[in-house]
Design brief:
Length: 343
């Protein structure tokens, strides 16, 4: 057991863009965190709703970093984290409520194993507190076609939390809604990829962490409550565009060359089917978002492929923990598997 005076300093960093109301509501919970060596930071992405003024006047104990423009999720964090000198950082969404004891279990796990570079807590739904939340649940996984899913969330099916996934274990990715990360690893890998802007940048970071030889874990002994959709609604064409484009970019950067061609070809077909389904469901805006996502990706394919040179050794998928070696689409839609435990 680590003596209370020996816990390293942790910076909990909340990236904010026009979520003044959420800061006023949820920042007090963060400030009540039971951890002996903590600083709370709000990095404001040039908000226009007077968020910065709120922090200055109502939460003077919070360190405020005011960014010159809205850099998005990825570069916004990169800009803010460069201004910190602590060894451990938590990337925490502004729409997350934390209990008092949320941080220490994650730090205990992190400090127990030097190979662990990133840890996430169990993510439950803020509004339905006995259910897992979409963005992370109890640890992130991918299938062989690079579709992300979680312990507790398969596609859009969310499970009730009955303690069935309460074991701490290595996973493929940790949620960007609440991620504890070693600062030295983050810096060595140049942090989040700003070209993602938002969505799946945390999976990209975790994949690079794993390719570099470190581990990503979930610590269900820590629980937080995530509202979700605080930035872009699930039905937003912009969100659909980013999810489809960024997933293609994600695999292009991180898959071995021998795997990339095969997976890309399959994903072209599957994404086309998804676009047609949106159309049949009366959502032409989402269909168009898928088309635009593919155009945006292929126009800059050479650029994304060039990023492979800056990624540590791409390991074969089968060598990574947290990979489902089958098709999630077939398992879910053809075989009716709705729970992680069914896979």
């Amino acid at each position: 057991m680590i003596g209370i005076m020996h816990y390293p300093k942790v910076s909990v960093v909340i990236l904010n863009f026009n979520t003044r109301q959420l800061l006023e509501q949820l920042l007090p919970f963060v400030l009540k965190t039971e951890y002996p060596n903590l600083e709370v930071v709000v990095a404001d992405n040039a908000s226009t709703d007077h968020s910065a003024e709120l922090v200055k006047t109502k939460f003077p104990e919070v360190k405020l970093i005011e960014l010159a423009e809205n850099f998005g999720f990825a570069e916004g964090y990169n800009q803010a984290l460069r201004q910190l000198d602590t060894d451990f950082w938590v990337l925490l969404n502004s729409d997350v409520e934390v209990p008092q004891n949320w941080l220490k279990p994650m730090m205990d796990l992190m400090l127990s194993n030097d190979q662990i570079a990133a840890v996430q807590p169990k993510i439950l739904d803020y509004f339905k507190r006995d259910f897992f939340e979409y963005a992370g649940a109890s640890g992130g996984f991918i299938d062989k076609h690079i579709y992300p899913f979680c312990r507790g969330r398969v596609m859009n099916e969310l499970e009730a939390d009955n303690g069935q996934y309460d074991d701490a274990k290595p996973v493929f990715w940790a949620t960007g809604a609440a991620m504890l990360v070693r600062a030295n690893v983050y810096k060595a890998l140049n942090g989040l990829d700003a070209d993602f802007f938002a969505h799946m940048e945390e999976i990209d970071l975790c994949w690079r962490i794993k390719n570099a030889g470190s581990e990503v874990w979930v610590c269900p002994q820590s629980t937080v409550y995530h509202m979700g959709g605080g930035t872009l609604a699930a039905t937003s064409p912009r969100k659909t565009f980013l999810n489809f484009r960024n997933n293609l970019c994600l695999m292009t950067k991180n898959l071995k060359a021998s795997e990339l061609v095969r997976v890309l070809a399959i994903r072209l077909v599957l994404d086309g089917v998804a676009g047609l389904k949106f159309l049949v469901d009366g959502k032409p805006g989402l269909t168009w978002a898928v088309v635009k996502a593919h155009w945006a990706f292929f126009i800059k394919f050479g650029y994304w492929a060039s990023k492979r040179k800056r990624v540590p050794n791409q390991l074969p998928l089968k060598q990574h923990t947290g990979v489902y070696g089958h098709s999630l689409i077939v398992a879910h839609f053809a075989k009716g598997k709705k729970k992680f435990s069914d896979l």
